[in-house]
Amino acid sequence: MSSETGPSKDVSEEHLPSERVSHGAVEPAGDPFADPGLPPHEHRRQDIDERAAKSSERTVALLFVVSMLATIGFIASFVAIPVDRITYIWPMGNISALNFALGMTLGISLFCIGAGAVHWARTLMSDEEHVQERHPIEATPETKAQVLSDFRMGAAESQFGRRKLIRNTMFGALALVPLSGVVLLRDLGPLPEDKLRHTPWEKGKLLINQNTHEPLRAEDVTVGSLTFAVPEGLEHDDPHYMEELAKAALMLVRLEPEDIKDKRELDWSHEGIVAFSKICTHVGCPISLYEQQTHHVLCPCHQSTFDLSDGARVIFGPAGHPLPQLRIGVNSEGYLEALDDFKEPVGPSFWERG
């Protein structure tokens, strides 16, 4: 029986894998994971048909013009639509007409700028891909020159100078969009002047229990309790009720007179009943947590803590000022009343507070 060292005769030579020997190992002749490279570049319709390019140019310009009109609509809506107007819009139901108009116009304005830029890039700017090998971070003079050359070539290929209609309408859209933000600054004025320094409290106004809506007597405020009050005449049906309440909200605590450390606080109290603003001097949260043993009140938002036995000074937290105190007394009928307005602005600190 004879032996053969070559391939079996019943297997065709052309079906066997080609092999090469390298350092004693057998490896395939070709790399199966080789980079195939970029596919052949295919021209778009706009690259070869000027009519199609003009059509794309008009589409981009139209999107920019719509953006400008939407920005103008945003400004007009902000000026013309009352803030309290409610309208029915399917399927959302009853919503604020002003919020809907502002949202729609600003959304359309920004969308059209983005859509115009995308359509411009996809149809008119050069879409030919170029592969550049990675290079060191520090660029060589040749690389810098190449970048400048590529930039100039990109500017030329974008047809920014040639497509004047696109360029001018894009500038118009970009110039008008910031006006949306400028118009919103109207809500920051007019200047408050001295409005932050005055509240509905004044001499002779009764302290009304915020829960029972009845005038408070001294005996209604007991040791260890925290009572909330509003000024007489502040009604729920007042369109400015919440604005006035934000400045006039009051909390009352009865302390033993000998526990009061601040002399002015003692002079402004009645039989140990002290009245302080309920509005935290940090960011304006309502204070509602009272600890009888320490006479401390805590703001639940950022844990600013005030000592009501020592002029409501800040003993912990980010608040920058003590709580303003309201001077109180009793009238001839035994009801608690204010003897003046707050001497300091209530609520958060501001740069002109002094």
Automatic annotation (TrEMBL):
Q: Where in the cell is it found?
A: Cell membrane
Protein name (record): Cytochrome bc1 complex Rieske iron-sulfur subunit
The organism encoding this protein is Streptomyces thermolineatus
- Keywords, in A-Z order: 2Fe-2S, Cell membrane, Disulfide bond, Electron transport, Iron, Iron-sulfur, Membrane, Metal-binding, Oxidoreductase, Respiratory chain, Transmembrane, Transmembrane helix, Transport
Region: Disordered, residue numbers: 1-43
The transmembrane segments are 60-83, 95-118, 165-185
Instruction: Explain the purpose of this protein.
Output: Iron-sulfur subunit of the cytochrome bc1 complex, an essential component of the respiratory electron transport chain required for ATP synthesis. The bc1 complex catalyzes the oxidation of menaquinol and the reduction of cytochrome c in the respiratory chain. The bc1 complex operates through a Q-cycle mechanism that couples electron transfer to generation of the proton gradient that drives ATP synthesis.
SUPFAM superfamilies per the record?
Answer: ISP domain
Which PANTHER family does the UniProt entry name for this protein?
CYTOCHROME B-C1 COMPLEX SUBUNIT RIESKE, MITOCHONDRIAL
Which protein family is named in the record?
Belongs to the Rieske iron-sulfur protein family.
Q: Which InterPro entries match?
A: QcrA_N, Rieske_2Fe-2S, Rieske_2Fe-2S_sf, Rieske_Fe-S_prot, Rieske_Fe-S_prot_C
**Domain Rieske, residue spans:** 247-337
Q: Would the keyword Membrane turn up in this protein's UniProt record?
A: yes
Q: Where is the composition biased (Basic and acidic residues)?
A: 10-22
The protein's topology relative to the membrane is: Multi-pass membrane protein
Q: Which co-factor is required?
A: [2Fe-2S] cluster
Indicate yes or no for the key word Transcription regulation: no
Q: Where is the major localization of this protein?
A: membrane
Q: Please report a single Pfam family linked to this protein.
A: Rieske
